[in-house]
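User:
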Amino acid sequence: MKAIEVVAAIIRKGDKIFATQRGYGDWKDYWEFPGGKIEPGETPQEALTREIREELDAEINIDKLLYTVEWDYPKFHLTMHCFMSSLLNETLHLNEHEAARWLTKDELPSVKWLPADEVLLPMIVSELETIDSINEISR
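Assistant: Predicted structure:
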């Protein structure tokens, strides 16, 4: 089976997470976290910075690795390195996606996720809840 290694940005702004909708291919109209393939010689972080610049005309700060998903799709095996990230500027332009939304933790299940991306939802909710707890303590 063909193997593909990619990166994904879980972009957080306050209590919301940025999600994008695919506009092409077998999984058209499914939702995903933006990112893409790692090119030869790139680190995952370099690939993610490049991909977000290409896909969204945006600059991000890569905060930490959340999880690496291993997933078997019908035509390939996916290794997806998923990083919690934040925007360095407010500019976002959809160059490759059909639509985008900022979702709260309660809204995350409201869209039809790609299977490998859906695996991340409980971890993202946990991250958001941890941030909420830290904010509560610091008030």
